[in-house]
Amino acid sequence: MKRKQIKFVVGSVIIVAALAFLAFTGFQDNKAYYQTVSEFRASQDAAYGRHLRVEGDVVAGSIVREARQTQFVISHTDEKTKQTHTLPVKYVGADPLPDTFRDYAQAVVEGEYHQDGIFVARSMTAKCASKYEKEKAAGVTQ
Amino acid sequence: MAQVGQFALALAFVVTAYSIIASLIGIRLRNDKLIASGRNAAVGTFLCITLAIGALGYVFVQSDFSVAYVAEHSNRDLPLYFKIASIWGGQEGSLLFWGWLLTVYSALVVIQNRKRHSSMMPYVTAVLMTTSLFFTTMHLFTVNPFQLSGVAMPDGTQNLFTPRDGAGLNPLLQDWLMVIHPPMLYLGFVGFAIPFAFAMAALITKQLGDTWIRTTRRWTMIAWFFLGTGIMLGGNWAYHELGWGGFWAWDPVENASLMPWLIGTAFLHSVMVQEKKGMLKVWNIILVIMAYIMSLVGTWLTRSGIVNSVHAFASSPIGNYFLAFILIGLSGALYLLFDRLPYLKSDNEMESMVSRESSFLFNNLILLASCFAVFWGTMFPVLSEFVRGEKITVGQPFFNRVNVPIAIFLLFLTGVGPLLAWRKASTNSLKRNFLGAAVAALAVGAGLLIWPGIRPWPIGGGEFYAWCSFVMATFVGITIVREFYKGARARAYGTGENFLEGVVNLTLRNTRRYGGYIAHFAFVLLFIGWSGQAFKVDLPGIEAGIGETFALRQYVMRVDDLTVEKTPNYDSQKAVVSVFENGKKVATMLPEHRVYKPSQQPTTEVAMRSTLKEDLYLVFQGGNLDGSKAIFQVYLNPLTAWVWIGGVVLGLGTLIALLPNKKSAPPKRSQKPARVEEAKEVESIS
């Protein structure tokens, strides 16, 4: 390699290294385990202190809305064992709850699991599986 | 009509396959008639798919719920324009729409080039039609939009029935932006197929000069324009429809559209190096391949349900077909590239770190790094589950931490790159071009510490980056304005035009260069808007009854009334809120909370008071538990309007760059020699 080109290689390496450093630290600070409620229950004590995203369906009638926090329960049925697991959630995030958040919606809550058995969520997303997809899914499991 | 659509799809399948075969055999046998026939078949494919999508539109307008796709995505009371937009409201239809756009592009390209590039075109046709064949196959066999409504019986037969009304279009999509956002995005995605097809044809025929680049330059820019416009519209939709006060959340579906845009941006810059200096030939082909592959990956991510996203798409069987198609396309393209490496020798080499070439090099390096980081963050849940059996996800902070510094560095290059000389910039020219702007930018930076009192520490915090961004935006803004000023002044001397005429004529004579500057200036505005987001404040979950007030910064809001309105499509609760700024009434805002009838889904209709300084953003979340009070959420989003202004300017700049250059008219007056030199220099630098 010619000397002229070495400085380009060095410059590029420095830039890439700096970005890799940012990416790595950002990743470490921000990673979260993504689990269904069933997987979450299966992980037992490992769940405490972990940064988690947990997915489950909002249990009908469980939503209790207040101005600054909302409580509800999400559930998930394990496909193999057919057991249904539930998780009580307290949402304390700053953003308003999404429009799609309501009974039966598929929710993903992000936060930590506390010793009192309640999952404290700081952010959440919800998607509303359409009726048709529900029917399809039901058709598969029957 | 559904049968007509079905038949059109089947016919398209045959015609597309014929087009590929005729083109390839035609070029092998050097039979011009067969080649022309393959080309005509490509136009025929366009006609077939047009008929199919027309038929789908027709059944939507007729509310023919015997077609399952119509029953799932429309209802009788839906307004006509939403019925038409429902064509791309779900899986099957949006894939058909994708496929249709591909045939539109293909037909235009084969007609445009019917008398040119005679050895390349048959391959271009074959590559485009292969993609089209893949889509037609999927329309016919896996995601058929003309499937009839019915229930699957236990014995495997289908019991047909026609529902009385449809399930309705997702209420979040019932918005005019959602009518045009997906077509724009898809026009962007699909458009990258054109440069890809030409690159492949160039590799196959070993015609690796810059013919293929010159031919596809405008097509690439058109695709890039549509993709950028689609992204901006999506952000604007999210901002005023979703009611969480922001416009970008690094959701996988957003990332899917950003990745090909980043690659496309890199390509638009690095082609200039190939055109001017004959360098980066291999690199450009890699970028074209990646832009196209990323478009397919984007479609795959949004359509297969492989990554978890707020966009509700069903998991579907198309994922594996798509993945297979992407991998085959990618490996085929890379094999060809590898095989043709000896034909891709560079004519020049890099000389100085401070040169136009090297600014393009770094621009490309970090755009790619950004794309890679976005890809990594988006795909990590899938990868980690595959490797370790645990799904690990990353959220917005990860994406921001990597991409914000990248973006600011890019903005810096935006200001510096276009003014650096090719090969090597002299210290003198650096001083002349940048010293004034740099001093002014630092002065603005110092000023911002005093008013409005930005505190740019700790380093790496939101305010730090916002401050850097303001300083950089000032710097870049000044360098761009100076370019226009210099050019217009030179013209004014040369032709006697006034300054404004000078600016316009300057731009029209060299659209690519000055259109580029306008696009760069758009980023100055975008960065101002983005930086404003670091200073957002909000008032979460306020309960207020009629007559009660709440306040945020200088704004006081008073609830005057809570009303109810019923329409055929939805029921709505409306709040009437008076807004006082520093004690003076400035607006009446009407935030709504709607419940759509067919789906029973609630949506919030945000009320906004937007000024260039800040947006007051009011969300009405419905009544509290006993119904006595309303729940509001208020955001104050500084400088957000500049994001949308920047988006519009970006589109304008791109459109200007797409215009052909106006020919120079003979000068009217005798000129001073020195000024003519300057005018010439200005025109020739690009």
What is the topological layout?
The complex is a heterodimer of chains A (142) and B (686).
Chain A: H1 3-30, E1 32-36, H2 37-42, E2 52-58, E3 64-65, E4 70-77, E5 84-91, E6 106-113, E7 119-127, H3 131-141
Chain B: H1 2-29, H2 32-61, H3 68-73, H4 80-85, H5 91-112, H6 121-141, E1 150-152, E2 158-160, H7 176-191, H8 193-205, H9 211-242, H10 252-277, H11 281-304, H12 318-339, H13 356-388, E3 391-393, H14 396-416, H15 427-450, H16 462-495, H17 499-509, H18 511-532, E4 537-544, E5 549-552, E6 555-566, E7 570-581, E8 584-589, E9 592-596, E10 602-605, E11 607-610, E12 614-623, E13 630-638, H19 641-658, H20 673-685
Antiparallel strand pairs in B: 1-2, 4-13, 5-6, 6-7, 7-8, 7-9, 9-10, 11-12, 12-13
Helix pairs in contact in B: 1-2, 1-6, 2-5, 2-6, 5-6, 5-7, 6-8, 7-9, 7-11, 8-9, 8-11, 9-10, 9-19, 10-11, 10-13, 11-12, 13-14, 14-16, 14-18, 15-16, 16-17, 16-18, 16-20, 17-18, 18-19
Structure description:
The complex is a heterodimer of chains A (142) and B (686). Helix content of chain A is 32%, strand content 33%. Chain A has helices at residues 3-30, 37-42, 131-141, and strands at residues 32-36, 52-58, 64-65, 70-77, 84-91, 106-113, 119-127. Chain A is elongated and about 70 Å long. The N and C termini of chain A lie far apart (66 Å). Mean pLDDT of chain A is 83; it is low at 130-142. Chain B has 686 residues and is of the alpha+beta class. Chain B has four domains: 1-150 and 160-174, no CATH class; 220-345 and 353-412, no CATH class; 413-530 and 648-685, no CATH class; 535-642, no CATH class. Helices cover 62% and strands 12% of the residues of chain B. Chain B contains 20 helices and 13 strands. Chain B has helices spanning 2-29, 32-61, 68-73, 80-85, 91-112, 121-141, 176-191, 193-205, 211-242, 252-277, 281-304, 318-339, 356-388, 396-416, 427-450, 462-495, 499-509, 511-532, 641-658, 673-685; strands spanning 150-152, 158-160, 391-393, 537-544, 549-552, 555-566, 570-581, 584-589, 592-596, 602-605, 607-610, 614-623, 630-638. In chain B, strands 5, 6, 7, 8, 9 and 10 form a six-stranded antiparallel β-sheet that branches. In chain B, a hairpin with a 5-residue loop joins strand 1 and strand 2 (158-160). Mean pLDDT of chain B is 90; it is low at 670-686. The chains are: A alpha+beta (142), B alpha+beta (686). Chains A and B meet through helix 1, strand 1, strand 7 and helix 3 of A and helix 13, strand 3, helix 14, strand 4 and strand 10 of B.
